[in-house]
Amino acid sequence: MENVYAVQCENLRIANMAFQAGSYDVAYEMLEALVHFVVSAEANKHIGMENLRSLREGVKLAVSNFASCKDEAYWEMSAELYDLFR
């Protein structure tokens, strides 16, 4: 369980670094995979509720960073990703 959580946290860290570096395509692809993981029914089985809550908040924050993205297409796609949390 802890390995899956650590890997997903590392993926989130890399996605954030990619975004900060302006590599929006890499950041978006990684965040897309992370969003689909954290909203899945399987996520709780793999990382537990407390870790899932923490990871979910980090992913939501990272996706919301795209609101300030210079590329409007990524802003629109990220809005669709954010809707998956509802």
Overview of this protein structure:
The protein is mostly helical. The chain has five helices and no strands. The protein has helices at residues 2-20, 24-38, 41-47, 49-64, 72-83. The radius of gyration is 12 Å and the shape is globular. The model has no long low-confidence stretch (mean pLDDT 92).
- Which residues form runs of ≥5 with pLDDT under 50? none
Report on the biggest sheet.
none
Q: Find the count of extended strands (DSSP E, 2+ residues).
A: 0
The residue-averaged pLDDT reads 92
Q: Determine the fraction of residues in helical runs and give it as a percent range.
A: over 70%
The H-and-E topology, N to C, reads as HHHHH
Structural class: mainly alpha
Ends apart, CA distance between termini:
25 Å
Estimate the global geometry from the Cα principal axes: globular
Query: What's the number of helices?
Result: 5
Gist?
This protein has 86 residues and is mainly α. It has 5 helices and no strands. The termini are far apart.
Jot down its keywords:
mainly alpha, 5 helices, globular
List the helices and strands and how they pair.
Elements: H1 2-20, H2 24-38, H3 41-47, H4 49-64, H5 72-83
Helix pairs in contact: 1-2, 1-4, 2-4, 2-5, 3-4
